[in-house]
């Protein structure tokens, strides 16, 4: 065997070792280079995502839980009107993730979508806090049974802040859970098993934030004033942003994959065309290409499993 052959073997060995060091799902690090398994993602990155979600949920429920009470006692709205306005606002909060999902999957990526919309979210929290803190932005106190209604000038800052918050939730709700899932390599069986545990901790973080806001924050609002009661959720939203950015060097990133509407149409069309095909026993035959690279540009393969059979 000549020296050239030995060199080729050494190069092949080095390439195999390098491929084992990197994730198999095409994820990148914060420098936009292939992510190294032992330096990025996995549980080392998840505490920042879970902390971000806990503080964000605490901020959201700190506003939403007691909002009807604020509208009726401080802005002198009727119960029906206040309940209707809060319901419309909450419904908007659950519709705006459609905007965040399209931007994240098609253009910005999940990290930057969370970052930008979190800033919007924080801005809305600050506007809401100012509206509850400045005396001129609230109507005069009730005199007996006579309660002067709020003027349009007093309504606008409050509702403007609320709907800025609704827009901000769109990028956060749509992306945080999937961004956490991106930290685990689907091609690695050990990391894939840890992903289920992450989902459990994610929902624990949501409920922890909700419990704290529904108890402590509501108590502050009822006993120490609404300026402080809305200011604390704004503070926690700012803390949420700080926690999220602190983990940047540890995250794994997936490239945006283009318009999700196009991908959805491709799936529907392929499903119709292949509805009569027999599923092969060998799962490797389900892939459109024999190696780890997806046939869809800027995408990675979803690993086959039998969990939902």
Automatic annotation (TrEMBL):
Q: Which residues form a coiled coil?
A: none
Q: PROSITE patterns from the xrefs?
A: PTR2_1 (PS01022), PTR2_2 (PS01023)
Which positions make up the signal peptide? none
Q: Give UniProt keywords alphabetically.
A: Membrane, Transmembrane, Transmembrane helix, Transport
Q: Which GO terms describe its biological process?
A: oligopeptide transport
> Which InterPro entries does this entry report, sorted A to Z?
MFS_trans_sf, POT_fam, PTR2_symporter_CS
Broad class of where this protein is predominantly found: membrane
Kindly provide the name given to this protein in its UniProt entry: Uncharacterized protein
- Tell me the organism: Pisum sativum
């Amino acid at each position: 065997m000549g020296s050239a052959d030995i060199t080729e073997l050494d190069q092949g060995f080095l390439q195999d070792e390098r491929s084992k060091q990197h994730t198999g799902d095409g994820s990148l690090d914060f420098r936009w280079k292939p992510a190294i398994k032992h330096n990025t993602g996995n549980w080392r990155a998840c505490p920042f995502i879970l902390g971000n979600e806990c503080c964000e949920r605490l901020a959201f429920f700190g506003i939403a839980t007691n909002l009807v009470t604020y509208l009726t006692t401080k802005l002198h709205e009727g119960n029906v009107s206040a309940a209707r306005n809060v319901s419309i606002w909450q419904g908007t909060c659950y519709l705006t993730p459609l905007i965040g999902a399209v931007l994240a999957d098609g253009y910005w990526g999940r990290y930057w979508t969370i970052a930008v919309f979190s800033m919007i979210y924080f801005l809305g929290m600050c506007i809401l806090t100012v509206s509850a803190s400045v005396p001129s932005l609230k109507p005069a106190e009730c005199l007996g049974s006579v309660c002067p209604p709020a003027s349009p000038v007093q309504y606008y800052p409050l509702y403007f802040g609320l709907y800025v918050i609704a827009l901000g939730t769109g990028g956060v709700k749509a992306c945080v859970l999937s961004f956490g899932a991106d930290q685990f390599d689907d091609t690695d069986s050990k990391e894939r098993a840890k992903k289920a545990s992450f989902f459990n901790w994610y929902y624990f973080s949501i409920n922890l934030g909700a419990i704290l806001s529904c108890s402590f924050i509501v108590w502050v609002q009822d006993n120490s004033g609404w300026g402080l009661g809305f200011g604390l959720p704004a503070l926690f939203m700012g803390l949420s942003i700080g926690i999220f950015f602190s983990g940047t060097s540890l995250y794994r990133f997936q490239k945006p994959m283009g318009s999700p509407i196009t991908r959805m149409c491709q799936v529907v069309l392929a499903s119709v065309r292949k509805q009569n095909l027999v599923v092969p026993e060998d799962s490797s035959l389900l892939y459109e290409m024999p190696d780890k690279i997806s046939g869809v540009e800027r995408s990675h393969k979803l690993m086959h499993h039998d969990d939902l059979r």
